[in-house]
## 1
Amino acid sequence: MKLKYILLMGCVMVYTALAGTLIKEENIYIEKLENGATAIIKERHDTEAVAVQVWFGVGSVYENDKERGLSHFLEHMLFNGTKYTQPGEIEAEIEKKGGSINAATSYDFTYYHIEIASPFWEEGIEYLYYMTTAPLLSEKMIEKEKPIVLEELNRHLDNPKNILWDTYNRLTYKISNYKHPVIGYRETIEKFDRKLVSDYFYSHYVPSNTYIIVVGNVDRAKVLNKIKNTFGAVKGKHYRPPPVPLEKPQKKIKKEIIKKDQVTRAYVAIGWHAPPVKSKDNFTATVLEEILTGGRTSILYQELKEKGLVQAIYGGYLAHRGTSQFLFYFVTSPDKVEKAKSKLFEILTNFRENGIPEDLVEDAKRKIINREIFAREEVTHDAESIGYAASVAEDIYYDIDYTKRIEEVTKKSVDEFLKKYVGNSNYTEVQLLPE
């Protein structure tokens, strides 16, 4: 996920001793409520839209062997009725008001979001409060949802590219749960019951692990009052996500070739272990990503795509709480795999030995900053970047100072990153080829 940033002009920090830590600034307001939940409100009067999001510091990386896929399963379950609403009622009401509602589950986080016109911000908060604090989680709905999720798993497994990424994660991760797919496994999903689902929900989806984000054309005091009267009244035991164990340094090449008759082209993923999201090196990794794969002017697009070695190439820094990845993924004809791979490593070796030109580093930084300024115009992206910073990076200034930290990246730090992480004998490679 690419993070956006918040531009704060002339802000003054004020610290007040209340139930938690209250941080008040000109454009963004953060308050830790008495029950441990965190409210984050950003008033924006340049729009008529409002984004309401509820983030949790929980994802598949925190599941045990009996729970594989449960974070994703709960995403489905929270749309299956609450103590206050019938199944489908919330979605219908949001759509009547011209809004949208959805959710996402990843390795490190889960979040639920509503985008709606500003007159309906209060309903947005109320609906997400119902969903994320008072779901029914009935046995009947669990049994109803199982076939739906299992069919989703079937589609996942029928897609050869998903097999490629599942294989890649299994190869490269040996310690942390990033080696398991977010969607889980058939043998675990089939055994989900009300006790397991409820125990997991009430252990992880608790106030101390909850971030309520509201961005848009709202009155901060009114929004805060609404959040306190809803999310602030929830009880729950304390839970904070534990540190994700880091992988041991990879010192050899791990490679696997998969052959499927459904594919006609070659799909190749090559990647290296990279530092966690909280590391300052992650900003360096973002700049290197831009240099190598950031659009049509990037090095790899010019040298591989434009010269006919690949049909498409993507890549960059994939951030996690634990060991992250710096990877590349390209599509080509089977007879060009080794040529494309050879050219990729030729470029990386040249940059590692001779350094990356200063102008490429500075151009990449400008592109990232300009793109972030444009992207944050949408309240949804603005709220997402705040929620990610608070719940995953666990530092709101990861977002607030994002462009400042990009600006601080130097040619020296990019060169050092390449030498430290991206070698010729410490990578993971998976190829998906036609049978």
## 2
Amino acid sequence: MKYFFTLISFLFVLQTSNAQLFKKEKVSYDANQGRGSTDNNLLRWGYFLGFSQYDFNFDYNENLRDIYVERSPGFNVGLIGNLRINSFLDLRLEPGLLITNRKLHYGESNFSNTSASENDLLREVKSTYIHLPILLKISTKRINNFKPFIVGGFSTALNLSSNETNPEDNSSGQFRTTKNSIFYELGFGIDLYLYNFKFTPSIRGLFGINDELIRDKDPISPWTSNINSMKTRGVFINFTFQ
């Protein structure tokens, strides 16, 4: 239902703003009525809603069958703090909450020395991240009521669902990941200037830097011994209101 609500909200905003966006008249800030959006403020605030899809990128020690990652849509919500540097550069802080789920499907070749049940071949990784990116936004010159931009930077995340300190491992059905992760991010979007606010759809890719796998105690574990590194990657589609 939350994904449906976000989609309906986006379509409603798009429909009601369509006439404003494609007018030749340039929307400007009205200080007397306190409406509109201005890019001249040193600090600006807002919030975002959106969708995400997370994946894992594996590097292996031996050439066995790859672990298949079954991805599910996730949900993002958070706040925005924007520091204006000049007409084309902004520094942004976007703390948010991200919820996602991934299922790992192992091949029987990973269990060559032991027999594997259906439960052994499947591991579910549920993640709830407190996500904190610091981004540099590079914009073009505003064209009527549109302003395209690219964005990039680094982020860190605290996984509230991590079981890093759990003494049990995959032999007891527990697939463990690190609590803290570091990423770099790249994306693009477009600012749409409306009478009452600025609406921004954007898409951004996220790429893990650190290895997030907690190895099993058994050095020949069929779940972790062949994994050299496991790093998160993902994509966001966010809708921002300022």
## 3
Amino acid sequence: MSIFDLSGRTAVITGGNGGIGLGIAQALATAGCNVSIWGRNADKNKAAAASMAGMPGKVDTQLCDVSDPASVKAAIAGALQAFGRVDGCFANAGIGGGGRHAFIDRTEEQWRTMFATNLDGVFHVFQAAARHMTERANGGDKFGRLVATSSLASLFGTARNEHYAATKAAINALVRALAVELARYGVTSNAILPGWIKSDMTARVLADDKFVGAVMPRIPVRRFGEPADFGGIAVYLMSGASSYHTADTFVIDGGYTAF
């Protein structure tokens, strides 16, 4: 059996109906992992599930707004009803900052809305998943994977995006703390930091020729990332191969930060 065979495992992917989340879900299902896709749009959830028809892993979808604790509790209950267990949780749902407003013009509502989804959402989802994982571990079944989607904005200054950057830097600290606290339960905790990736969130800037002209020369592999570029790291993190790898931040950026 392959060290990356995920048969019998189940993973939750928030924001799994598009972009990086869908790339992760498809790779996991291909490796035999059952996946529960959580998103706010029923039609996008349905289309995402359809794209995985015929893959070894089974697919479940849940309508979920990660900023709402009650919605998250209902979604985790639905995933457990569908598959009986949750082995991995990819907290990927998030919103972009847009870069349209100067920091001094940022409204309280804009600040709170960003944190409600990008940070509070990770808290709600990880807490629900970790509760289930630790209960299983106390019953003798020690295995869990917590993976959050962070951003290069957590490492480098991004003008007019301070609220977004702050949520992502907090996620990096959160996964490290959880890695230490939950290691005794066989649960690892890591973050993925994407570079410039083609998705709905980045569609506006990637369509700007001036932006592309400035950024592309800084990417050594000379292309923007694709959702499929996150499949390998997702399968690795879900597998037994990564059982000793925790508290890390994986930069997936085509070499952008090195150049």
## 4
Amino acid sequence: MTIADSASHHVYVGADVVVKIIDAAGHSRLNREIALAPHLPTGLTAPLLGSGLHRLGTREIRYACYARVPGTPPGMGLPGTDAATARLLAEEAVRRLDGLHGWTPAGHVEQTLREPLDHGGFAGRAALSAELEHFDALDRDGTVPPHLLDGLKAIARHAPPHATAAVPVHADCHWGNWLADGRGVTALLDFEWARFGEPADDWFFLARFSGPHRETVLDVVARATDTSLEALRTDCEVREAAHLASDLRVALEHPEAHARMAAERLHALEELVVGRHWWRRTQLG
């Protein structure tokens, strides 16, 4: 078996299976994925073959074994993908996500999706404003430049008052979590952040990590959902603001452990506030 890149697990890929392993004392998100996997809409993700705990000395290891699905991840930013392929992948991804959003879970599966989860996403204007106040108080050294904090606060002031928990969402469906074979999507992986939310929680991830094909993906989503591009851009902008605020708060709470994350998020914040990248095409056109 070969080792696959993963920020939070040990992942091993064989000819027919994929195994995810994590220290059971670590985060519990793999438990969430294991509970959901057998009940997700047919054909959406890789089939779960088995899971459990294994004692290794004094430690307990959580594992999940999945059937290997054909395909490879298109990758963050869709590197090396031409415009026509990007559109086809986006159309297929939107269809699959629409199936997820239309799924009606019941029983313990619904309960799992409704369990509290510090997902860092948009939870309403008041929650976003509170997050900004929190990390503003933590930022005694001025890590976040004032003009960027002011920009985040402006986005928060114009954010919708409430966020609903209406449909199942993946909540991490960037292009590193998809598999594609040629121009066709074969599976969506890693349901550890799945929860109830709004479809826009997924449209944000799909568009944000499409690199030079962001406008193509936004167009695909807008057409498929009968949503105006302006409304979609607004939804994505406020969700990025929420995720950046949450990540920067974590980085400020644990500066030594998250110095690299802080630098990356500050760069993204500059693009969001100063570059206004969600609106760049409309400004130019």
